[in-house]
Amino acid sequence: MNKMTVRDMDLKAKRVLMRVDFNVPMKDGVVQDDTRIRATLPTIKYVLDQGVKSLVLMSHLGDPKKDMKKAQEKAAKEGKPFDEKKYLEGKHKMAPVAAHLAKLLGKDVALAPACMGPETEAMVKAIGPGGILMLENTRFHKEETSKEASERETLAKALAQYGDVYVNDAFGTAHRPHASTETVAHFLPAVAGFLMEKEIEYLEEKVMKAPAKPFVAIIGGAKVSSKLAVLESLLNKVDRLVIAGGMAYTFLKAKGLSVGISLVEEDMIETARKILAKAHDMNVHLFFPVDHLVTKEFNPDAPFRHVARGGIADDEMGMDIGPLSIEKFTHVLRGAKTVVWNGPVGVFEFPKFANGTMGVAKAVAALPDCVTVIGGGDSVSAVNKAGVADKMSHISTGGGASLELLEGKQLPGLAALKDKARTGGCGCGCK
Question: Given a cut of 70, is residue 428 above it in pLDDT?
Fold first, then answer.
């Protein structure tokens, strides 16, 4: 990676401002999955071990305004009362996250009431040597995500007062040009944390720039439209491409096969045909499901039957790949030296239709001498549920960010960090 990291800075007695991605699933004020918190621990511990004066952490936790509106509408539709304070405390306030982090570190983590303001400024000044302060959810401030650069700068300048060095270890939000992820990097010496470094090492260096061959990609999920840029980018890199999940049915229909009432984006059928033609011209081998588990309704308990490709009746929908497809994809993966997997191959959230995704997870995990990179929330859940997470080379913490890297896009939060070439004589504390 050509960006400076915390290793390149002299942090002793410095005030460190760090953006982390603690946007974890919450239920009634309890952290449900701390994967993202644990992923940042190496950077946090390293910073503290350098003898820093203070460490101020900041993160978003959902989008309070948008998410609360949806929750209110749902409560109204169901005729239930809505307690705004209870909702915000249980879903969007950082207090439970700060407490969880404190438990993992075995060290107190103080919590500020906001990201800026006199009370927060006073708490920052009062942090003792090596102390940790977590700011409240950045997205309680409209300036964080504002489209107006001047508004983002207002928050960024306030945040910059809390540190001598800015560390970005929030890969999951690196694709967002927000005040705490990108704008603040223009007001302080800005470097990457270890998680950011690892994400870039795998997704950019080992997958996009110099993948070991053969390179196989598995792209699943619901819609072609959401993965179109990824598919087009990967066609220029891979030797074999597996397309599965709901998006496969748009391709199967484009190929003239019966898909019944399966999820199909009618306006993407012509695009699917163009991708098929491009793959043929580029000698990239495409693979689709050869059998399916189908039902007549989208229901976790619906009765299902197993059919071969083309055997889906007019009133049936595909819910998962069948055993022949698992066997086929396992064979496609054989001999691969680089594998990237993004998106489930079936309706993974329904246990009856999770076997295909579980089968792919186990097949990827069993590959010898292969760089295996997992991106996307459901793919991550799959390898965790299959008990094979520790068999993977890298599991990305950023769904949207990993997709944009695979699309070949530049991430604003990463681009704003200092280049390694700019070392020596810059007066920022570089080693």
Answer: no
In angstroms, the Cα distances linking 161 to 56, 124, 132, 144 are 11, 9, 16, 16
Cα separation, 253 vs 223, in Å, equals: 14
**DSSP codes, 7-69:** GGB--TT-EEEEE------EETTEES--HHHHHHHHHHHHHHHTT-SEEEEE---S-HHHHHH
Closest CA to 191 of 163, 162, 172, 210: 163
Catalytic entry in 3, 14, 19, 36: 36
Nearby residues of 225 by Cβ (< 8 Å), 6 or more positions away: 265, 268
Catalytic residue status for 86: no
Between the CA of residue 23 and those of 26, 93, 101, 237, 254, what are the distances in Å? 9, 11, 13, 32, 38
69 is catalytic: no
- Read off the pLDDT band of 262 (50, 70, 90): very high
400 is catalytic: yes
CA triple 323-325-329, angle to 5 deg: 120
pLDDT value of position 1: 80
- In this structure, the strands spanning 54-58 and 110-111 are unpaired
- Count CB-CB contacts under 10 A for residue 324: 15
- Identify the weakest region by mean pLDDT among 90-104, 152-166, 371-385: 371-385
Known active-site residue 377: yes
Which helix (H) or strand (E) segment is 364 a member of? helix 355-365
List 310, 377, 408, 429, catalytic entry: 377
List, for residues 4-63, the tens digit of each pLDDT value. Answer: 999 999 999 999 999 999 999 999 999 988 989 999 999 999 999 999 999 999 999 999
The SS3 call for residue 338 is strand
The CA angle 368-373-375, to the nearest 5 degrees, is 150
**Which residues, in sequence order, are bridge partners of residue 5?**
192
Catalytic residue, chosen from 223, 352, 385, 391, is 223
Tokens, residue 185 = 């990097």
Of the listed 400, 408, 420, 429, which one is catalytic?
400
Residue 421 is predicted with a pLDDT of 65
Note the helical H segments in 130-243.
Answer: 149-160, 194-200, 224-234
pTM: 0.88
On the question of pLDDT at 424 being above 80, the answer is: no
Residue 216 near residue 333 (C-beta atoms within 8 A): yes
Q: How confident is the model at residue 311 (pLDDT cuts 50, 70, 90)?
A: very high
Phi, psi of 219 (to 5 degrees): -120, 120
